Amino acid sequence: MESLWERRGPAAAIIVAALFFIAPLWCVSSPAMPDFPAHLASYYLIGAGNGASPFYSLEWAFIPNLAAEIGVPFLAHFMALDAAARLFLSLGVAMWVIGPRSSTARFTGGSVLRRSPPRSSPTTRISCGDS
After folding, report:
1. Helix, strand, coil distribution of the chain in percent, nearest 5
2. Is 31 inside a domain boundary?
3. Which is more confident, 49 or 46?
4. What is the pTM of this model?
């Protein structure tokens, strides 16, 4: 019978590791991103729409890295802009932690949050000399 640690240990380790890497984003006044204020300004302008400033206008185009430009202004309707940007960064950091575990689980046939069963592989005996 599996112990509680064998069943829940991998999930707990993933959560602790994610929180370990996410905590610094929330413990400082500004994350260690030199361009964080510029990102906040662009999220504000995007969230306010074309009427925010006579000097800026939005011209949307399909490019692959628009997740923050779409997600953060949307989240800013429900919370402060700074908190929305930190939440978005936190989700990205959590993906760094969960990603390797999920790919490992995919290739071993296990679960992302549970310990993968050991793979059975044929053993080969190598003998040196006469036995």
Report:
1. 55, 0, 45
2. yes
3. 46
4. 0.71
Q: Is position 119 within any domain?
A: no
Residue 95 in any domain: the answer is yes
- Number of structural domains (the chain) is 1
pLDDT tens string 55-84: 877 888 888 888 888 899 999 999 999 999
Structure tokens at 45: 């302008």
pLDDT digits (tens, 9 = 90+) for 77-108: 999 999 999 999 999 999 998 888 777 777 77
**Structural domain that includes position 43:** 4-50+64-108
33 φ, ψ (degrees, to nearest 5): -130, 110
Distance CA 25, CA 125 (A): 52
Q: Which residues contact 96 (CB under 8 A, 6 or more apart)?
A: 21
Q: Which two tokens stand for residue 117?
A: 């069963």
Q: Is 25 exposed, middle or buried (0-12, 13-18, 19+ CB in 10 A)?
A: middle
